[in-house]
């Protein structure tokens, strides 16, 4: 698959393991680390929500900064701020205020997200974009196999010292990656043109460009529906990242060091599907595959809720079902979103999409913290409901497409 990918997409993807591998080693422990340093469930919720609200503002700026600075420069500068600097704060955190400061810095990630997304797809042919996102997912899957190494460190040093070591490793790996990727990529043709145009633009011109992008989104019913599905998907990811680890440790009585095996199990399941099932999938049935993926995600949460404390077999089944749902639905969703956005307005429209996503999911942390204190299963019930909403939206989209085709 990778031989087909050239140019900026190749330059972006080849260094992605330097982010994915250390991140997979620590991500399952991030909220438990906060918990052990005295941050309670509601404070974790507030940190999550405040970070997301901050990301709304950085998302609004992201399109402008990506066009004004150029894709490569915006990517390098704001990656250093949002990831390298935040990783150092996470490494030395002591209480709620440290984590809040790191969340504020990390909120600037929306700028490099937009810049990276533009670099990844602008010089890539539409027919190759689902392949790009599948390779990206494969990198994430392989990175998940390294998650148990984090568990070994936790088992040896205990959780807090191990997490401090992991965050320092994360900082070093990311910083090297950012400079290496900058060297391996070039500014896109659209990026050069947009940077030239932006140098003479005033604030009102930028606002007018955003207004034009909003009108273009509102004028396309299919695009609105796809954005709705994308928002539901991001809601689930945010909720799961915040509360799955705590649920496994607190509600299901899992050992701290043991929970790192689940990302590895997920990765193994994804690899099997990626080589045995995914090659048989047909691009023209993408919508049906996405619905199938959402159904598997619903089933995975039902199994997780049904699991009794210490019942590791059901947790493994839930993990594998979630992995199957993700590997089937996510690359198609990303490709459909990428192909729905006009290249000439990509930076602005993607930043608006991020704003819409964040406006909808920014209360996730507070809602998750509040519902978790009532019943630890409630956040996962909310995830089930959002998957159901995604299925309904996809059915509406399929129906509107068939009606348009028949007419």
Describe the structure.
- The chain is mainly alpha-helical and 407 residues long.
- It contains 19 helices and no strands.
- The chain has helices at 7-14, 17-26, 30-36, 41-69, 71-92, 96-106, 110-121, 129-144, 147-157, 159-184, 189-198, 203-218, 221-251, 261-276, 286-306, 312-340, 346-361, 364-374, 378-406.
- The radius of gyration is 21 Å and the shape is globular.
Return the average pLDDT rounded to an integer: 86
Any idea what the shape is?
globular
Total number of strands: 0
The radius of gyration is: 21 Å
Structural class: mainly alpha
Helical amount = over 70%
Strand content: under 5%
Short structural summary:
Helix content is 81%, strand content 0%. With 407 residues, it is an all-alpha fold. The protein is globular, with a radius of gyration of 21 Å.
Structure characteristics:
19 helices, 407 residues, globular, mainly alpha
What's the topology here?
Layout: H1 7-14, H2 17-26, H3 30-36, H4 41-69, H5 71-92, H6 96-106, H7 110-121, H8 129-144, H9 147-157, H10 159-184, H11 189-198, H12 203-218, H13 221-251, H14 261-276, H15 286-306, H16 312-340, H17 346-361, H18 364-374, H19 378-406
Helix pairs in contact: 1-7, 2-8, 2-9, 2-10, 3-13, 4-5, 4-6, 4-7, 4-11, 4-17, 4-18, 5-6, 5-7, 5-10, 7-17, 8-14, 8-16, 9-10, 13-16, 13-17, 13-18, 13-19, 14-16, 15-16, 15-19
């Amino acid at each position: 698959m990778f031989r087909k990918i050239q140019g900026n997409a190749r330059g972006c993807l080849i260094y992605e393991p330097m982010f994915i591998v250390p991140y997979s080693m620590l991500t399952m422990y991030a909220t438990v680390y906060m918990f052990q340093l005295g941050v309670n469930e509601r404070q974790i919720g507030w940190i999550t929500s405040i970070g997301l609200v901050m990301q709304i503002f950085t998302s609004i700026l992201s399109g402008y900064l990506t066009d004004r600075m150029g894709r490569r420069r915006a990517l390098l500068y704001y990656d250093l701020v949002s990831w390298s600097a935040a990783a150092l704060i996470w490494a030395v955190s002591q209480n709620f205020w440290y984590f809040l400061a790191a969340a504020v810095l990390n909120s600037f990630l929306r700028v490099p997200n937009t810049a990276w997304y533009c670099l990844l797809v602008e010089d890539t042919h539409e027919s190759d974009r689902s392949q790009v996102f599948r390779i990206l997912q494969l990198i994430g899957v392989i990175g998940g196999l390294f998650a148990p190494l984090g568990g070994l460190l936790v088992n040896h040093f205990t959780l807090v010292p191990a997490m401090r070591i992991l965050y320092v490793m994360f900082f070093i790996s990311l910083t090297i990656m950012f400079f290496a990727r900058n060297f391996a990529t070039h500014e896109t043709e659209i990026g050069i043109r947009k940077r030239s145009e932006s140098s003479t633009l005033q604030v009102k011109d930028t606002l007018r460009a955003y207004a034009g992008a909003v009108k273009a989104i509102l004028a396309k019913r299919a695009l609105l529906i796809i954005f709705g599905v994308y928002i539901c998907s991001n809601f689930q990811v945010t909720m799961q990242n915040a509360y799955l680890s705590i649920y496994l440790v607190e509600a299901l009585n899992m050992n701290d060091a043991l929970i790192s095996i689940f990302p590895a199990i997920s990765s193994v399941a994804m690899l099997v599907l990626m080589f045995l099932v995914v090659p048989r999938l047909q691009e023209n049935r993408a919508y049906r595959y996405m619905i199938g993926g959402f159904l598997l995600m619903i089933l995975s949460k039902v199994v997780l809720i049904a699991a009794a404390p210490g019942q590791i077999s059901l947790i493994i089944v839930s993990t594998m079902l979630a992995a199957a749902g993700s590997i089937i639905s996510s690359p198609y969703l990303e490709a459909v979103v990428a192909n729905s956005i006009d290249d000439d307005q990509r930076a602005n429209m993607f930043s608006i999409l991020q704003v819409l996503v964040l406006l909808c999911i920014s209360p996730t942390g507070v809602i998750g913290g509040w519902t978790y204190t009532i019943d630890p299963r409630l956040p996962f019930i909310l995830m089930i409901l959002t998957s159901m909403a995604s299925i309904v939206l996809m059915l509406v989209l399929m129906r509107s497409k068939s009606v348009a085709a028949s007419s």
